[in-house]
């Protein structure tokens, strides 16, 4: 399972949706990234594959960043979202 998270202006909590397949997650990530570069569409609506009734609609101008990562089964999984430095 893969998560795509949107970081929003003035919001400490990101919005996220899930994709079952890596290719689908990459495609959504690229779509959001290209939309941010172009500034279109003005309203971005995406759905979640895990929870079919979950939909997110957000003004593209409010999105600061998008990230994609693999959801791990355990709470202490080795893959974490974002970037980290191991000492």
Task: Report a brief summary of the structure.
This protein is 20% helix and 34% strand.
Give a structural overview.
- Strands 2-1-5 form a 3-stranded antiparallel beta sheet, with helices on one face.
- The chain has one helix spanning 22-38, and strands at residues 2-8, 15-19, 43-47, 55-59, 63-70.
- It has one domain (2-70).
- The protein is of the alpha+beta class and 87 residues long.
- The chain is built from 1 helix and 5 strands; from the N terminus they run E-E-H-E-E-E.
Counting helices, strands and paired strands, the structural category is: alpha+beta
Number of strands: 5
Provide the succession of SSEs. Answer: EEHEEE
What is the overall pLDDT average? Answer: 85
Write the layout of secondary structure elements.
Blueprint: E1 2-8, E2 15-19, H1 22-38, E3 43-47, E4 55-59, E5 63-70
Keywords:
two-stranded antiparallel sheet, alpha+beta, 3-stranded antiparallel β-sheet, 1 helix, 87 residues, single chain, 34% strand
